[in-house]
Amino acid sequence: MNSRSLTFNVFRHNPRDAASQPRVVQYQLEETPGMTLFIALTRIRETLDPGLNFDFVCRAGICGSCAMVINGRPGLACRTLTAELPADIRLFPLPGFELIADLSVNTGKWMRGMSERLQAWLHPRETADIDALEARMEPDLAEAIYELDRCIECGCCVAGCGTAQMRPDFVGAVGMNKIARFRLDPRDARSDAEFFDLVGDDSGIFGCMSLLGCHDVCPKALPLQTQIAYLRRGMARQGWSAKPAS
Amino acid sequence: MTALEKPGPWPARLDVLQSFSGLLLGLFMWLHMLFVSSILLGEEAMWTVARFFEGYFLFGYGLPWLVSLFVAGIFTLFVIHAWLALRKFPAQWRQHRLYWTHLRSMRHEDTTLWLVQVITGFGMFFLAPVHLYLMMTHPELIGPYESADRVWSGMLWPLYLALLFLVELHAGIGLYRLAVKWGNFSDPASARRKLKRLKWAFTGFFLVLGLVTLAAYIKLGIEHAPQVGEPYVPASLRTAP
Predict the structure, then answer these.
(1) What is the CATH number of the domain that holds A80?
(2) Which of A57, A97, A112, A163 has the fewest Cβ atoms within 10 angstroms?
(3) Does A93 lie in the same domain as A52?
(4) Cα A19 to the chain's mean position, in Å?
(5) Which of residues 184-223 of A touch B (CB under 8 A)?
(6) Is there a contact between A211 and B110 if contact means CB atoms under 8 Å apart?
(7) Residue A172's domain spans which residues?
(8) Would you say B35 and B49 are in contact if contact means Cβ atoms under 8 Å apart?
């Protein structure tokens, strides 16, 4: 089999360098069997351009660092085989996040802001007694919680969401998935009224316009459509029955 | 992002209201198309449908103000839905540009269809009130000859042709979106595929039905142009000359 010659059109810009202008730089590379974008970018950095910035940690779709816009759609570079792409490949950083340089964006800063705003951590019912046995949980429920916990905060759902692109205060599917996850968890003390105060407005669940870009680009195939609809029904019930805020 | 003030119940209520008003309007527009297309079954059939909504067969005589009242209700629902939907419109140039760039880059059907909804909704702001006002103020002019005269001699066919496409696209996409927005499906991927197929089937059916119906009114309007303004009287009510 003849290997293809791939053309990479890569966005380059370093916002901390006053002389840097946003531009697209072309790199040519011979395709090798089983080549992922991680392998390709590493080879470009090793052989063609040592100054190219991009993020990788795990190379296995677990850390969420390497999300970028691949031929127009957000995805994980380490899980994308070049064989699935045409010979012309365009790589851009995820939109909606602070650009560090080239393909590297600061998703961590955005995710931290979202987590703090949504208080996306367990609010336990009682202080843990480390000597006592843990409360038991039905395997199905544990499985359902684990399913949503698979989110790696890569930012693809935010970059794939038209609403998030237009409205920077929108929490995105990643935020709603977090709320859905803690809402499921019997160890979390928060009621629907409290979750409602976190996501019950147009920057939360009611800002979602059901474009489902998030669902379609999620590299972990999380059930975002189902979870967002479920949360919407719950929050709508809560909002409809709630007394006006005091 | 910092912790925000509590949202209160209104964002939730407005969201439900937007969906609910859209649901009623979308379903009504499909029924409306079926009623209007009764002209394809003949002039008498259309006359019967029109008088039915005036309570003619209940009271023995027509009360056109019943239709006015109903149209006023639809008009109100339309205004409410438009106001609620406006909250989602991109308002600033920056948002227009971002959405357009995003849409072109994603090549994602549901993302593209949303822009179709924005454009068709925007079009209806201007065109639907013309029709609604006419129906509200002159409900007695709904009938085979009366409507055909309005379409052809009254030069409303371009408006109706435009409205047909705006309404059918907007309603089809909107009802599909309601289903994926609120629906609880055991297999969401297959449900979405089926809903999408159903949506296009409905849109296609109502567009074809609408075009044929409009053609029928235009044909009747051209034929009736010499006697423009003369109302239709069914055979059973005609007095012998």
Answers:
(1) 3.10.20.30
(2) A57
(3) yes
(4) 31
(5) 196-197, 200-204, 206, 208-213, 216, 223
(6) yes
(7) 107-237
(8) yes
Is A242 at the interface with chain B, CB within 8 A?
A: yes
Give A187-204 pLDDT, tens digit per residue.
999 999 999 999 999 999
In DSSP terms, A187 is beta-bridged to: none
Closest by CA to A210, choosing from A196, A228, A223, A198, is A228
Partners of residue B16 in chain A, C-beta under 8 Å: 236, 239-240
Strand partners, A28: A7
Reference B206, options B171, B162, B177; nearest CA is: B171
Q: Tens digit of pLDDT per residue, chain A (246 long)?
A: 578 999 999 999 999 999 999 999 999 999 999 999 999 999 999 999 999 999 999 999 999 999 999 999 999 999 999 999 999 999 999 999 999 999 999 999 999 999 999 999 999 988 888 898 888 999 999 999 999 999 999 999 999 999 999 999 999 999 999 999 999 999 999 999 999 999 999 999 999 999 999 999 999 999 999 999 999 999 999 999 876 544
Nearest CA distance, A134 vs chain B (angstrom): 31
A88-92 and A5-12 beta bridge pairing = parallel
Say whether both A122 and A98 belong to one domain.
no
- The token pair at A60 is 């296995």
**This prediction's pTM:** 0.94
Q: Where among A52, A75, A104 does a domain terminate?
A: A104
Lookup: tokens for B228: 């423009």
For B49, the token pair is 């449908």
**Check: complex ipTM more than 0.90:** yes
Residues in a beta bridge with A81:
A36
Question: What's chain B's Rg over C-alpha atoms?
Answer: 21
Measured CA to CA, the distance from residue B101 to residue A96 in angstroms comes to: 13
What was the pLDDT predicted at A245? Answer: 47
Instruction: Assess if residue A243 is contained within a domain.
Output: no
Whether residue A159 sits in one domain with residue A98: no
CB-based contact A77:A36 (threshold 8 Å): yes
Alpha carbon distances (Å) from A191 to A27, A179, A180, B106? 53, 11, 12, 37
Same domain, A92 and A65: yes
Hey, which bits of B156-215 come out as E strands?
Answer: none
How many residues are given for chain A?
246
Residues linked to residue A188 through DSSP beta bridges, in sequence order: A124
The one-letter amino acid code at B85 reads A
Say if CB B196 and CB B20 are below 8 A apart. no
Residues A76 and A64 sit within 8 Å (Cβ to Cβ): yes
Residue B54 structure tokens? 């005036």
Q: Does residue A242 sit within a domain?
A: no
Domain boundary among the residues A54, A82, A104 is at A104
Chain B contact for A75 (CB, 8 A cutoff): no
d(CA B221, CA B43): 12
Into how many domains does chain A fold?
Answer: 2
